[in-house]
Specification:
By secondary structure, the protein is of the alpha/beta class. Helices cover 35% and strands 24% of the residues. Helix 6 packs antiparallel against helix 9.
Length: 263
């Protein structure tokens, strides 16, 4: 399955990249339009697909497309929608909220920022961007057992993970070792403000989240860890690798983390 940002504006604004015909045919999938993002003639909702199996044990949020030039995250979330439509029993133990494209304007133009030049992923303390305001309202007061935000890094040479305010690194380390065993490189040299990778892991402490909030650079996952979930991860893949490989890494990381949360 191949993905690109070609004709992405039409796909995003009309919801075509979410395969709505598959969603409408499912008893457990529901497509909803969040608040509308408007920049002049550009108008697009932030879509959320809700998966509600009858006997779910956990509640999970999956996001992608925070930065419009990181296509594999959105591609993986869309693939999840297709998997759920084809086989609703596959993830029957969890209810899922899936947001494939957080930044529809950036996605439609293959750029990191929104139309106003804002990095949405630094705006969850100030809420100055339309997108951050919409997401805050969309999540409401809901508490999730797990949040995974799917990203990419155009400057990285390998796979890496963030975990947030979590003492135990065993889940993250298992994921990293699995990706390494699959033959993919693990990132060793990413620096993010006050943190850096240590053999593929950026372990963000709670004081670091508070620092980012005070300095008004709070990311989506920082915000969700502080407000709505005790288990939050960001998956990062290097854009220099083929899309097929990046999708495989996103899928494997998601499934491994989910399995551990359900144990």
């Amino acid at each position: 399955m191949k993905y690109s940002n070609s004709d992405a504006e039409a796909a995003t604004s009309e919801g075509k990249n979410l395969a709505p015909e598959r969603v409408s045919a499912s008893d457990t999938l529901h497509l909803e339009a969040g608040g509308l993002i408007e920049y002049g003639a550009f108008r697009a909702p932030i879509w959320v697909i809700r998966y509600r199996p009858p006997k779910a044990l956990k509640s999970v949020l999956i996001t992608g497309g925070v930065h419009g030039n990181e296509p594999a995250g959105t591609a993986w979330v869309n693939e999840m929608v297709a998997l759920l439509a084809e086989n609703p029993e596959r993830y029957r133990d969890v209810s899922l909220d899936l947001v494939p494209v957080v930044n529809p304007w950036g996605w439609s133009r293959d750029v990191r920022y929104n139309r106003d030049g804002q990095d949405i992923n630094r705006d969850f303390a100030s809420f100055e961007s339309q997108e951050a305001v919409v997401l805050k309202a969309l999540f409401g007061s809901r508490i999730y057992d797990l949040v995974i935000d799917h990203h990419e890094d155009p400057n990285a040479s390998g796979f890496y993970l963030y975990q947030y305010a979590k003492r135990n690194t065993s889940v993250s380390r298992e994921v990293i070792e699995e990706i390494r065993d699959l033959g993919y490189p693990i990132e060793q040299d990413v620096r993010m403000v006050i943190l850096r990778t240590r053999d593929g892991l950026i372990d963000a402490p709670r004081w670091g989240l508070r620092y980012m909030k005070i300095t008004r650079r709070l990311s989506l996952t920082n915000y969700l860890r502080l407000e709505q979930s005790g288990e939050v991860y960001t998956v990062e893949t290097p854009t220099r690798l083929p899309m097929e490989d990046r999708l495989r890494m996103h899928q494997r990381a998601f499934n491994m983390i989910l399995k551990r949360i359900l144990e």
